[in-house]
Amino acid sequence: MGQEKEVAVKVRNVSLAFGGVRALTDVSFDVRKGEILAIIGPNGAGKTSMLNCINGFYRPVSGSITYKDQELVGKNTYDIARLSVARVFQGIQTYGGMTTLENLMTGMHLKLNYGVLAAYFYFWSKAKKEEMEKRRKIEEIIDFLEIKHIRKSYVGELAYGLRKRVDFGRALAMEPDLLLLDEPMAGMNLEEKEDMTRFILDVHEEKKTTMVLVEHDMGVVMDIADHIVVLDFGKKIADGTPEEISRDPLVIAAYLGEEEKVR
Amino acid sequence: MYKKPCGVFDESYEQDSALVRTGYRWSMLVLLLAILFVAIPLLAGNYVLDVLNNIAITLIAALGLQIVIGFTGQISLGHAAFMAVGAYTSAMLSTHLGLSFWIAMPLAALTAGLLGIVIAMPALRIRGFYVAVTTLAAHYVIMWVILHGGDLTKGISGLTAGEITIGSFVFDTELKFYFLVMSLAALAVFFTSNVMRTKIGRAMIAVRDNDLAAGFMGINVFRTKVVSFFLSSLYAGVAGSLLAHYQGIITVDQFTLMDSIWILAMLVVGGATITGVIMGVVFFKLLSQVVLFGGPLVGSMFPSFGGSAVSAGMQILFGVVVILFLIFEPRGLSHRWQITLSTFRLWPFPH
After folding, report:
1. Is ipTM beyond 0.95?
2. Cα dihedral sign for B300, B303, B306, B312?
């Protein structure tokens, strides 16, 4: 790793087990500030589990994850969200019963400070003022993601590709410093993938958001990642730039099988 | 998808998120209020006013249940019990302590709300069906306590509740009471609509649709559920208190499990929106009037059925209505209404 940037997320010796299954074993790596780090690996390698540990959804049995000088292991998901950690989910995890606009506004949940009583007295309290201020930012995200036409559509009625875009928009509405993307492009066609890649790169360029990306499409990963971590059976087998990774014999073995066995 | 009438454009975010969006709708709202608060009081007799008072009280209770079931997605079967808590607290405060309704009602609502929190705490650690069973248990515990409350609740003999007064003005007729409950119901609808378009309402729907993602977005799922149970019981408390003072006397058997389930049925028929609550409550209450008058009528036309068979058959009608809604319009009357509106707005163009 060439340039020495400040470390944003420090993952140290993280192990995670479900009963007897070891999902992660002694995984350590650094996510540097402002970089796009891709986690790759075969199915079941522990990529999503790793993201869930950072998000606080899984609690590792040992190890530590530090971010913004705080230990994330042991914190609740919603407390970690307060540290501006946003997540784009694998598959569809949007709120189907709300419109696109409301889905995105939900991402702003933590940025709105009024309480229940203010919500009741909407017109005569700070609730309305705050809502309208945030609406501006939401509309910017809607413009940016080109989802103006579905602003008032119920997300449950939208096509898959659009729902993924709403999911991404909802994460952006959290104004994240750290964005965790779990297969944002799974199940998309080439055009949708290109759009999504463009959005990710634009956000990265503009906001300098640190991103951790889990993705199976090697073309995308090699193109946009600054730094790649390879997991296999819950262990880290490689860590480096895309060029280093593509030449790494262990990685090739993990993806294509070992040479001895092929012979 | 929500479609605006042709030619209506929003120029500010306020306009875009307004509850009443067009001049036409404003005029409809004014017309509705005029009917509710001028025409009906002038024209309606005591019987109709009594039915409407019951609708208004049920509407307040149903709005509360909608918050928990329709918006937060937690099945609660203890709503009638929370109404009972509100009714008995209010009646006890007015009978034993001589407090005025205007103090007793908020205290009753708060008591019901706090009890809602106490019951929600264990109930919400578990999910789905088990929440329903826990609230079911809560229903029986609350009813048992009321029944064995001795002189405080007067057990099965019923507890009186004082009249509502402002100065020397007494709410002693159906008409006077009508103005009170209908205004409160209208306010409840308005304030609940406010909550539902703020972060509190969005957090509830987020928990209903995807509690996992909600947690990742910084929404404290458990607290959201507890808040929704609190608000829900608060509404039930207000409704119960109104019922107690309206009837002047309350007994335990006015708050049965069936009442909770009927309110739930109203929500099913109405749909998971605030308009849905109004539609469901009005629909059911009018249907029960049909049953009330239709039953004896059918009985007199076919005497061989016998009176009890007819009244039982009319009860079945309620069940059939709920089943038909579940099969043909699971999203309720309000959804059907939206579709109808959209169709007319697009007509004669197909899309």
Report:
1. no
2. negative
